[in-house]
Amino acid sequence: MKQAPARTLYICYFGLREPLVQTQVLPYLRELIAGGIEVYLLTFEPQLSERWTGDELESARAQLAAEGIRWFQLAYHKRPSLPATLYDISAGARLAARLVRREKIDVIHARSHVAAMMGARAKRRSGAQLIFDIRGFMPEEYVDAGVWPAGGYLYRLAKAGERKLLRAADGFVVLTERARRILFPESETGAKPARPVEVIPCCVDTKRFRAADALSREEVQESLNVSGRRVFVYVGALGGWYLTEEMADFLSIAHQQDESAFSLILTQSEPLMIAGQLRQRGVHEQDYLITRAAPAEIPRYLKAADVGLSFIKPCYSKLSSSPTKIAEYLASGLPVICNGGIGDLDEQIATDRVGIIIREFNHGAYGQALTALEELRQDERLAERCMESARRRFDLEQVGGERYRRLYRNLLRPRGQEPSEDLSKVMREP
User: Which of 133, 158, 348, 391 is the most exposed place for a label (fewest CB within 10 A)?
Assistant: First the structure.
C-alpha cells in the first residue's frame, strides 16, 4: 500500500499579514514543504470581519495553496485580555482537533505558549504529536516588562501552565543555546534526550540580501540623500523591550563625534518616539530619517548603511531571545553594535569578530564602543566575515530549515529506527 507523506498543523497566534508571519513563519513552512511535509496553517486574525473581505480571504487562501500551505483562520480577540485569550485557546483547540482528525495530521506545531495551550488540548483529543516551538520565556517576559509582579498569581499560573506544556510536548524548539541549557539541563550531560530539542535562532534568507549586491552603495545613498555620510541603521520596533532612549543617547554621541554621521531608523512604530528623543539631544532633522520599510525593501536600505544597531532591555527573559535584526545586519555585511545579555549574541559576536558589545548604558561606554568600531572597520575582510557569520548561524535554509527538518525526522521516525536524512522517507499509513 502506498504511504502518505507526514502532515503538520502549524498554529500561530498572529495574523497572516503581520510582518512576523511573513518574515518568520511562512519561510519556515516553505522549508518544511521542501522537505516533503504537507503543511496546514491556523492563524488568528485581528478584526477579521473588518480587515478582510471574502474575496481577500479567498485570494490569500489560493496563493498559499499554490505554495502547498492550506490556510485556516479564526478571529483574534483582544479584550478583556485574559477571558479573550482563554476564549481563543478554546476555539483554536476545537478547530485544531477537528482538522487533525479530518485531515489525518501527524504533528501539531505550536508557535509560542498560547498556541501550545491549544495544541496540547488538541493533542489530547486527537492523538497527534505536539511540537512546542518556544519563542521565549513568556511568564518571565511579563514580569520583566512590569506587567505582572514577580511571584504573583498570574505569574505562578503561567509557570504552572508552562510546566504542563513541557510535559505534554513530544519535541521542542528554542531560539538560543542559553535557553536550551535553562529549560533542558539534562542536555548538558551529553546523553541523548528522550524528546528531541532543536536550537533554531531567528533566521533570514541570506540570498535575499545578496540581491542588493547589484546595487552600488553610492547609488543607494544618493537615492536617500545621504551621500558620503556614515550611516547608523536601526530596524524594528521602538519602546517596550527596545531601549529607545538609550539608542538616542548613543546616536547623539555618534553625531557629536562625527559630523558625517546619519541615523536611519526603519520602524513600524510611531516616528515621534525616536524623533523627539533625537531632537532633545541636539540631533538635527537633516541628520536622520525615520521611515517605514516593507520586508522586501530592507536589503536595499541596509546597502546604504555602515553599522547596524540593537538596543534591547537586558533581563532574564531575554536570554531566550534571538533578534532578527542582527541576522539581517550581518547578512548585509554590516557589523553590529548591541548591548550584552541578549540570547547567545555575546559569544557569537565576540567569536566571529563582527561587532561591538556595550556593557553599560552611559556616555563613556558609548564613546568606547565607537572607538572600538573604528578599529574593527579597519579590517578589509569585515563585511565578508559578517556575511559568513550570517550564513553559518542564521541562514534560513542551511540552519533554520535543516534543523526544523531534523526535528521532524527525529519526531516521526518509527521507534527504534535511526532518523532518515530524507523527510520524504518518513511516511505514514494513509
Answer: 391
